[in-house]
Amino acid sequence: MELQVNVKVEKFPLLKRFEISRGIKRTATVVFVELSDGINVGRGECGPNLRYNESPESVVKQIADLSGEMTSGLDRFELQKILPPGAARNGLDSAFWDLESKRKRKRVWELAGFDKPSPLNTAFTLSIGSPESMELEASSNASLPLLKLKLNGVRDIECVRAVKKGAPRSRIIVDANEAWTADMFVELSTELSTMGVELVEQPLPSEEDDFLATVSHPIPVCADESCIDSSSLKKLKGKYEMVNIKLDKAGGLTEAIQMLTMAEILDFEVMVGCMLGTSLSIAPAFTIGQKARFVDLDGPMLLREDREPGLKIIGNKIYPPTRNLWG
Description:
There is one protein chain. An 8-stranded parallel beta sheet has the order 5-6-7-8-9-10-11-12. A 3-stranded antiparallel beta sheet has the order 1-2-3. A 3-stranded antiparallel beta sheet has the order 4-14-13, with no helix packed on it. The protein is built from 11 helices and 14 strands. The model has no long low-confidence stretch (mean pLDDT 95). The longest helix is centred in the N-terminal third of the chain and has 18 residues, at 87-104. Helix 10 (253-265) packs parallel to helix 11 (279-289). The chain folds into 2 domains: 4-105, Enolase-like, N-terminal domain (Enolase-like, domain 1), CATH 3.30.390.10; 120-318, TIM Barrel (Alpha-Beta Barrel), CATH 3.20.20. It is α/β, with parallel strands linked by helices.
């Protein structure tokens, strides 16, 4: 059936500046995708990431260049062969799932063969700052059970100690976004383990993964930038205990489900994560979140104003998407 595609760039201001080891953001810039068959409309959202050589403009072009294929019967299965993993494929894949859900009058979790979803408890992310500012931020969110700290190799122990002081009852995981060196990993992971930190996410640059196979891990280590799609998982065995599945890296829910299966085969635990975005980007990941040990889907919580309709979020609890949002 011939499909019409509508794609555009949208910007959503953040509540506060958001800093990780690679830079600072004040706005979530996303690409909105809409597929229409003349009766039903499917929607998706993706977040281009410069780390993977993506820009809003490049993602829009990737999608717009497929307009010919749209008129000749492209579906999400063929899409996996035409586009590589990444934001563009995720935006289209999400829209295809939503469109199929509306055509068949079934929820996406039914189409995917999953159980009816339950609410998820997400981590809440604290961006990089001074120990003093991170303690203040932690104190403001001390009621949340799981905090994720962005680190950059500068005063990291002080920052973790400050967060624990500000939110003494919260569990803590940390994410270095490739900012540590091998020596820092050995030193910091040992000390962080004594402080009760439960997980270290992507400590080293992805090209230095091999080092992780040569040393002990006082804390479980999760692959993020090193984990793209299902084909990348085998080479992570022996280096990581966990993999972070993000739809914008994988190229959509279709591939993310394959990753979930492969992770189980290879005995990886699973984290489900997100880029900065609205509830529309989080809704497809909710399906994967049902199988994850750690859920990091707080994107909408970092926005000044979410898309309407959005996900219902109370504290750190995210409720399943309604039909009028997605899927």
